[in-house]
Prior knowledge:
It contains 23 helices and eleven strands. It has four domains: 232 residues, no CATH class; 72 residues, Arc Repressor Mutant, subunit A, CATH 1.10.10; 68 residues, no CATH class; 68 residues, Arc Repressor Mutant, subunit A, CATH 1.10.10. It is flat and about 100 Å long. It is α+β, with helices and mostly antiparallel strands and 483 residues long. The termini are far apart.
Amino acid sequence: MAVVKQGLEQKLQQKLSPLQIQTIKLIEMPVQALEQHVREVLNDNPVIDDTAPQGNEETRDVSISEVEEREQSGGSMEENYGPQDDDIPSYNLHVNNWGKDERPQYNTFSVKQSFSQSLQEQLGYRNLTEHQRTIATFIIGSLDDDGYLRRDIESLVDDLAFRAGVEASAEEVEAMLKVIQEFEPSGVGARDLRECLLIQLEDKKRTPSVENAIKVLDTQFDAFKNRHFQKIMTRLHLSEEDMKAVLDEIRRLNPAPGGDVDDSYTDQAQQVVPDFRLDYEHGELILSMPRFSIPELRINRKYEEIMETGRLSNSRADKEAASFVKQKIDSAKWFVEALRQRQNTLESTMKAIIDYQRDYFMDGDESSLKPMVLKDIAERTGFDISTISRVVNSKWIETHFGIFPLKYFFSEGLENSDGEEVSTREIKKALRELVDGEDKHNPLTDDELVDSLSAKGYKVARRTIAKYRAQLDIPKARFRREL
């Protein structure tokens, strides 16, 4: 029989307070999402007004600080409003009321028609039966974000039957796909790159170069993918000028037609709105956060009267009503304190980044960017690395030489031939310059790029070149070759 041992064990466990959790969530938000969230929070709290006082002095709203003074002079929370579960501290807030009208310069979302909506609208102009329209709608919903249909017809037939309860033949689905392929943007509904490009060419005026391009993609696509131009010219009896004209036609086509319509933020196209602004004046860098201010919260007069009644009354109902109002006020104060902590955290982090990369921020020269990782800024600010990561994510800064995401300033480091640490961004810039300046008739291989960078003082392995090439979206040498 097993012996069960009992004993006491002491553990030290760290838990985040609700205020810390709320602050973390706010830190992750970019400024445009934050402003929307603040409006939602205040709209959900009936006790709080964030509007300018209206009317005469007798009917004005009451600031939270006035209520706190009243509490301090009139007894404890439990005495005035009944027992409370939490003891929430008070915070002094300055007056900075927002107007009822939303400030137009703070509007950061512009509604755009989504990719699916655009196709559905075009579908509405077609004279189709209800059965055909159902099939076409299902196909539109099956398209990928880039506008391709990467599912075979038989799968769509099965899904129509099992998921939509619609019996359709492969021929009917194929016919509706052909209808969708006539929509804008040209190339939508294609099942592969070859079909996408051919659809776009078929929509163009039939010039000799367009005819040749159709012939190349239709009969020599594999050779074209591998850039075997000489083979294509021999097989189709094309001159070098003909082949150049074909390449020019194909280069003007869109390989991802669905990308023409932005579906970000659930059919709302988000504009980039910087959280920070950095000005350069008289040789000094000046940081500001002009897009957001912490609102002053005021208690609606009628709720303040409920609190006053509860403080003076012996009625349980009055005290319960006052207790509800007090909880809503404390909730708002808690939220404002989280906003304040967010602002302080963002400002401290951005100041540390500017201090670390001061040479770069003075003139915007990319070669001045030092290798910098999250740990470097965490050590300077005293914040946790995870906090720095949250600050950096989805945040932007406007400088006198452009607008940049904060992630842009972070990069690993490598040693150069002199033993100095240089940013990987500097090496990528040098790599890009080599590729841009190469002979396109005889592009540089990865081994040759390694030698060229070595001559510039950068010690980089071949596999590193391949990785950087992929990150910079630079194809292999044979795919960069031109006629």
